[in-house]
Each structure stands twice: as C-alpha cells, then as structure tokens.
Amino acid sequence: MPEHLITDLASLEALFGQVAAPSIAKETDHLHPIYARWIENARFALLATSGPDGVDVSPRGDAGPLVRIHDARTLLLPERRGNNRIDSLRNLIHDPRMALIFMIPGVGETVRVRGRAQIDIDQALLESFAVDGKQPHCVLRVAVEKVFFQCARSILRSRLWHREEHDTAGVPTPGTMLAALTQGGMDGEAYDSALPQRQRETLY
C-alpha cells in the first residue's frame, strides 16, 4: 500500500484535528422543531441509498414542501413519477439505511438526515399526496436517526446560487448524451425537441 494513502482511522483523525464544539452540538437524533421548520421550507433533496451493486444518490423535488413531517422521528417522502429505474427503491429493499441532504436555493447551509426507510403503499396515504389527481407510486416512511445542518463552505466555494457565474454553454444536452452513448442509435435532436413538452405532461 503506498505510504501516501490513509488507511486507518487514527491517521485520518490526525489529518483533520478535533471536531469543533458547534459541529457536535448541532446533531440531534430527532427532528428538533428548528430543523422541522427548516425542512418545511425545502423543495429539493438528494437521496442516498446502498444496495448489492453499490451506493446511489438521486434527486428528489416537489412544489414544496418536499416531505411531510409526521412526527419528531418520522418523515414522509412521496415517490413521484420518474424514469422507472427505481434504483433507490431497489436498494431500500436490500438495505433500509438511507440519507437525505435538503437544499434551499439562496441558502448556504444544508440539512442532513440519516435514517431507515420503508416503502408504504397505503391507499389513504397515497391519496393524501395526490397532485392534480395523480398519486405517487409509493411513499417512503423515514425513521429518523440523526439530523444536523451542514455549514455553507461548499456552497460558498462553488458559488452555486450565483447563476450568472455559471457558463452552461458547453454542457451536453440529454439528447446529445443519449446519441453519444448509443453511437447514434437514438436521435438526440428529436429527443431534446420533444423533452420539454414531455416533462410538462408527465411531471406528476
């Protein structure tokens, strides 16, 4: 093993030093009212899961709030229409452990939640999350185990919310990526042309 690689916990902790007192004080094992208030304002989060093929992170978004706070130890997250890959849900069948990072545009801090999720298809619950008469496929019932807020340094360094500074001209479109990945087997221009209307019509 090369000497420049860290492979033990003691070396890792020595590299970074002691944890600051506020970083410890901010952690709770439940949805403290101040964290509940923060999460109620969030419309977007990243969901992390782990399964037999490895780890996965996927986005979740809604018109707001993204999740429903059932009680101090339970979050309800509707699974809206998507691409039907269900990577996260497959993982949760194998391993219920999961994590969420909630983000709010313009706010540097994020809130992290760790817990375990169950996939719930109770009809009354699904109906309660309906939008324009369309129910989610299921609802993730998250048993909260740890909650804390993350400092704003990564958001500040990336200047994520300064949209005017981000040049997206060179970013490949979905159609361009599909055409390249299928070696021209899919018509990228046609895909991109139809995508906006398809997204509007299948949002929920």
Describe the model:
This protein is an alpha+beta fold and 204 residues long. It folds into two domains: 14-161, Pnp Oxidase, Chain A (Roll); 169-204, no CATH class. The chain has eight helices and seven strands, in the order αααββββαββαβααα. It has helices at residues 9-16, 21-25, 33-39, 87-94, 123-128, 153-158, 174-181, 188-201; strands spanning 44-51, 54-61, 68-71, 74-79, 97-103, 110-120, 138-150. A seven-stranded antiparallel β-sheet has the order 2-1-5-6-7-4-3. A hairpin with a 6-residue loop joins strand 5 and strand 6 (110-120). The longest helix has 14 residues, at 188-201.
- Would you identify the CATH architecture of the largest domain? Roll
CATH class of the largest domain: Mainly Beta
Class computed from helices, strands and strand pairing = alpha+beta
- Provide the succession of SSEs: HHHEEEEHEEHEHHH
Strand segment count? 7
The H-level CATH homologous superfamily of the largest domain, spelled out, is Electron Transport, Fmn-binding Protein, Chain A
| Proportion in helices | 25-40%
Order of strands across the main sheet: 2-1-5-6-7-4-3
Largest sheet: 7 strands, antiparallel
Let me know the average pLDDT. Answer: 97
